[in-house]
Specification:
By secondary structure, the protein is of the alpha+beta class. It has three helices and twelve strands, in the order αααββββββββββββ. The protein folds into two domains: 67 residues, Arc Repressor Mutant, subunit A (Orthogonal Bundle); 121 residues, Ribbon (Umud Fragment, subunit A), CATH 2.10.109. It is globular, with a radius of gyration of 17 Å.
Length: 200
């Protein structure tokens, strides 16, 4: 499967670091090397690479990242629904569709998954660009910091989720944009981001 340019750079950095140092880099070292603004961005890249079968990790070790030989990567594909557009910007109306898309089976785990086409630029610091396809696991709950697909008054958006004591904040990954603050109204989490699929 194809990786984005930045995903490939992160993967290559981990491989090169392991080869030269004899152990894998920490998330902080990856963050510093690429100048990411938060560890959350590093964790998203690691999650993408793991879901695509390029990395394995040991949760008990800060240097537990292990590249998987490309010969070991599962080349089989599955079909999942393509449900239309989701906004990486201000919420837009979600478009339900019946089209299917084929993706590598290594990108998904148990549970139901679907794909959405991204519209907008609010998640560019996380490597999610206008026109990208994102892979979503159906789920109606999330933990703080996870990237979610949510509906706000029946309009869909993709953002980082944070539950506060008196409101919900949906944060963009774009320093020029402000969070969406939800005090009331119709809010639902539709799923969490588990992968990004881009063809060249």
């Amino acid at each position: 499967m194809s990786l984005t340019k930045k995903q490939k750079q992160v993967y290559d950095y981990i491989c090169d670091y392991l080869q030269s140092e004899g152990f894998s880099p920490t998330q902080t070292e990856i963050q510093e090397n690429f100048g990411f603004k938060s560890l959350g961005s590093v964790q998203d890249y690691i999650r993408y690479l793991k879901s695509a079968g390029y990395l394995q990790s040991d949760a008990n070790s800060v240097r537990g990242l292990t590249p998987v030989s490309t010969s070991q990567i599962d080349s089989s594909v599955i079909d999942i629904p393509l449900h239309g557009n989701v906004a990486a910007g201000n919420p837009i109306e979600a478009i339900e569709g019946t089209e299917m898309i084929s993706i590598p089976s290594s990108m998904v785990s148990t549970g139901n998954h679907f794909a959405l086409s991204v519209s907008g630029h609010s998640m560019i610091d996380d490597g999610i660009f206008d026109g990208d396809l994102i892979i979503v696991k159906e789920k109606n709950t999330a933990t703080n910091g996870e990237t979610v697909i949510a509906t706000v008054n029946n309009e869909a958006t993709v953002k980082r989720y944070y539950k506060r004591s008196n409101c919900i904040e949906l944060h963009p990954a774009n320093s020029s944009m402000k969070p969406i603050i939800i005090n009331d109204g119709d809010f639902q989490i539709k799923g969490i981001l588990v992968g990004l699929y881009r063809s060249y």
